[in-house]
Design brief:
CATH superfamily of the largest domain: Vaccinia Virus protein VP39
Number of helices: 14
Radius of gyration: 30 Å
Distance between the termini: 27 Å
Oligomer: single chain
CATH topology of the largest domain: Rossmann fold
Strand order of the largest sheet: 1-19-2-18-17-3-6-8-7-16
Structural class: alpha/beta
Largest sheet: 10 strands, mixed
Length: 523
């Protein structure tokens, strides 16, 4: 597979490993954050640092990532500079994509809006990270009602590039595609199903749509065994596929369809080519989405939405309309799934996700995380009626946490920050050992079991002994307490400040001891 190369690409690839893990500090709570709402996060801070900080807690859990990154149009907007040199833009996006892929669930998908400035370069770069086979589609979204007057051929659409997190070998569709939701059926689609008259009267099974029983036989697609005669039950005439075609079904299947009155021979029963009946009751409960979206709101409608929310035109030149995000989120996720946007902008993604019953994480670096994103989400919780609110019968409720990035979790020498609490360190340890985030509550020394091994953490006096070395050191007494309170007959991995047990005793007890902070590594 060909690769895209640019100045400083190697540094961009190394950036993922070199970016330090930072703590995520919960600054304020808004609305009801009980249950699933506890995962709703609005984070202010550099998105590269924030994405890395999320890895120990959310790796493999995010169902849908939508990003609307800077298009690199060489324009200076009020809230961000869109004038990066081309190689700088690629180097900015590369490590972020790597982290996003880590956060995606196996059946998750990434959706990216761009225009012709960088879309095609981005496609090649993302194919390298996700795998070319994981690319799903390039959707064209009509973003304006007419071309700009300064161009003889004017761009009126954006690209929406879609990748799957994983595609199994020898399968046509990725796991993400298999989990995609169909679009709601339209009146036009339903109108194709009618109660067609036949010589024997109306079919008691109800309305149906007529499906062609022949296939184009040109270009080497003609199949000799699918060219045979079928007897019209009303006229007794033997009919054959039209010239240049063959039947779609073999003789046995056509006979079955005939016996079950699944073939429609016209109002008078004199048709030369029967049509197969697809009953409305058998149809898919939704519709596939086309690759051209020209039936949604435009950028100008989104600008009007923002103006209504804030009472004046905000510093967002090309915000995305809620209806566009609603379609993406509907296709790519289901209620309760996690949606992430690390280029949050005007907060449309999380606003729509909230209204649609998804959990969400929104990341924005600029001051408008506090001046625009936070107020917008407060309005959503209060039940604002803009955008898709009426479509989804939104009346308010739910809640979210407003967070900022804190200090690095580990210093340059790997020492643990004094600000790291037990639950946070437990999440790092679990992620390092298991390779996935913990869904459990980390509030006791036993972190969990995996493949027959029990993992323990002695830190911050978790056993109740607050003396400097008490409870954080693996002594005979501490080991006995672990065995009494959290018994496990199989192998154990214990993290602590140090151990007073010798190698022979550890071996007898089946314990692998790992010392804090030296053995606390990050993936």
């Amino acid at each position: 597979m060909p690769f895209l190369d640019w100045v400083n690409k190697n540094q961009a690839k190394e950036a993922v490993r070199e970016v330090p893990y930072h703590l995520i500090q919960h600054e304020s709570v808004h609305g009801d954050i009980t249950g699933a709402n506890a995962d709703n996060l609005l984070i202010q801070g550099d998105n590269l640092l924030a994405l890395k900080a999320l890895i120990p807690f959310y790796a493999g859990r995010v169902k849908c990532i939508f990003i609307d990154p800077p298009y690199n149009t060489k324009t200076d907007f009020g809230h961000y500079d869109d004038r990066l040199e081309h190689s700088q833009w690629l180097s900015m996006m590369y490590p972020r994509l790597v982290l996003m892929r880590e956060l995606l669930a196996d059946d998750g998908s990434l959706w990216v809006t761009l225009d012709d400035n960088e879309a095609h370069y981005f496609r090649v770069m993302a194919d390298e990270i996700f795998g070319r086979d994981s690319f799903i589609i390039d959707i064209s979204w009509r973003k304006r009602d007419g071309p700009p007057n300064d161009r003889k051929v004017g761009l009126v659409h954006d690209h929406i590039l879609v990748w799957a997190r994983r595609k199994d070998a020898n399968t046509k569709k990725s796991r993400a595609e298999l989990s995609f939701n169909l679009m709601e059926r339209t009146d036009k689609a339903n109108a194709q199903y009618q109660a067609f008259t036949e010589p024997g009267g109306l079919d008691p099974r109800g309305a149906f749509r007529k499906i062609d029983t022949t296939a184009n036989g040109k270009g080497g697609r003609f199949v000799e065994s699918l060219y045979y005669g079928v007897v019209n039950p009303y006229t007794g005439e033997e009919v054959f596929p039209r010239q240049g075609t063959c039947w779609r079904h073999n003789k046995e299947e056509m006979a079955r369809l005939q016996a079950d009155r699944r073939l429609y021979w016209g109002v008078k029963g004199t048709a030369k080519t029967p049509m197969r009946k697809l009953f409305e009751s058998e149809a898919k409960q939704g519709m596939s989405s086309p690759s051209i979206w020209d039936d949604l709101a435009l950028n100008q409608h989104a600008s009007a939405e923002i103006e209504k929310l804030f009472g004046a035109k905000a510093a967002f030149e090309t915000p995305k309309p809620e209806k566009l995000l609603a379609r993406i989120i509907h296709i790519a996720s289901s209620e309760g799934d996690i949606v992430l946007d690390s280029f949050l902008g005007s907060a449309t993604t999380v606003a729509v996700a909230h209204k649609m019953g998804r959990r969400y994480i929104g990341i924005e670096m600029g001051d408008h995380a506090r001046t625009h994103c936070l107020p917008r989400m407060l309005k959503v919780v209060e039940g604002e009626q803009g955008g898709i609110s009426k479509d989804v019968d939104w009346r308010g409720g739910g809640g979210f946490r407003y967070c900022v990035l804190g200090a690095p979790a580990f210093d340059e020498d790997g020492r643990i920050s004094d600000e790291v609490k037990f639950a946070t360190l437990a999440a790092y340890v679990w992620h390092f050992e298991i390779g996935e985030p913990g869904h459990q509550t980390f509030d006791k020394p036993l972190l969990g079991l995996h493949n027959g091994t029990a993992y323990y953490l002695l830190y911050n006096g978790i056993l109740g002994d607050r003396r400097p070395a008490g409870g954080n050191v693996l002594t005979h007494a501490v080991l006995q307490s672990i065995n009494d309170i959290f018994p496990h007959a199989g192998p154990k991995v214990v993290y602590g400040e140090t151990t007073r047990l010798g190698a022979s005793r550890l071996a007898v007890e089946g314990v692998t001891f790992k010392q804090i902070p030296y053995d606390v590594k990050i993936r």
